[in-house]
Amino acid sequence: MKKKVPLKRLPGEEGVWGFVFGDMLLFAMFFVTFLFYRYENGALFAQSQTLLNQNYGAINTLLLLTSSWFVALGVSQYGKGKTKTSARLLIPAFICGVGFVVIKFFEFGEKIAAGITLNSNEFFTLYYMFTGIHLVHVFVGLGVLFFLWRVARQVTDGSATKTLESGGIFWHMVDLLWIVLFPLIYLV
Asked: Which of 147, 172, 158 is nearest to 79 (CA)?
């Protein structure tokens, strides 16, 4: 007689997956648009790219990866009933996200001070649009992380596991989008 293997459940709420896939599809269109214009005007894009500070992009990548790691640990600890540990792990995740925002503002500030704006050329139009839209996602994600921190502190019976998973899924999507944006805009 064969043993029945229990089906694994999809983490989080089903609706968050629909949102994530829709958002990723939108960003996929952004990526294709960027690659199309890069193909059309490769010299301009290559020259403009040299004006970006790759260190800012790399540090922001490390901040988001580290933040996602803390979120994963926090969600995992919540699922194990360690709600206080979970809440504590969400704090450095939030701080890393704030660090991303601070660096992005420094980066935007340097560009604007150098006279490089949204209207400078096609590359910078796409740079500001795509990284700006991603930055909006980071702000929303910071709100989500704050909410998750409050939930982890207040709901100590483990009943909010799907809520924490859903919030974690959103934050990981924000991280994943940056992992594609960084090399596309800064390195390719």
From this structure: 158
Q: Quick: pLDDT tens for 122-155.
A: 999 999 999 999 999 999 999 999 999 999 999 8
Residue 95 predicted with pLDDT over 90:
yes
CA distance 27 to 40: 20
CB burial of 109-129 (b: ≥16 within 10 Å; e: otherwise) equals eebeeeebeeebbebbebbbe
Distance of CA 14 to the CA centre of its chain: 20
Identify the CA nearest to 102 among candidates 56, 161, 137: 56
pTM of the model: 0.89
Report d(CA 69, CA 55) in Å as an integer.
Answer: 21
Q: What is the CATH number of domain 44-187?
A: 1.20.120.80
